[in-house]
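Revision sheet: structure tokens.
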Amino acid sequence: MAAVTARPPRDALAPLPFDAVIRPAAPSAVDEVVAHIRALIAERGLHVGDSLPTERELCQRFQASRNTVREAMRILKAYGVVTVRPKIGAVIVDNRLERALDLFSFNTIEISRKTFADIQGFRSMIEVDTVERIFDHAGPDDITELRARNRAMRDAPTMADASEADFSFHLKLVSILNNDAVTEVYRIMKPVIIRIMEKGKVRQDFGTSTYQQHADIIDALEARNRIKYQYALQYHLELGLNTFGSPQEDKRSPE
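Predicted:
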């Protein structure tokens, strides 16, 4: 018989073979409570506006300490799943996309001619190219709201307020599409869109030329004139491009 060679003891630091089972670390007590609460929401069919059990009830239900439950609720609040209201307790919300928006900041983006063209091209696809759907969904209340937001922009006391109102006008236009995903993507772009709105403008522009351009867009929408609507909106979006000079000037190196 062949001699059997004893295997040397494995070095504790040696790499595991490929077929070794690597077990993930056990979830923390807080992670478990977060999972339990999310499962509870699903099991009970709770919706936005519904209240969760009290902190004491959650502690008893999941056999967890008060600190653990509070930390789990803090995480769910950070995720935008719940909010805590005075005298009511934890209430289910759906602010997940709003929380995601807080993670995006375009303050460091240089607003060059190309950036302007890219962003306005993106906006054109959403606001101009969807003309058929916007016309199918727009109603008298939408027209009234657009006019109100345009007046708010005209009467805004500061550049910052006018920019916010300008964005609000376009956000309302996008919301007519009745597509939450598109609306939220547009909202994600808010910081850079506002910077583009302010580029090359002075306070008076919002109260005069921009106000009139918005009014032309609304009038075309109300009259159901698709060609006039697309022309007015495309003109409005492209107008600021001349503030960047020619493409050749962008490429010209500083002397």
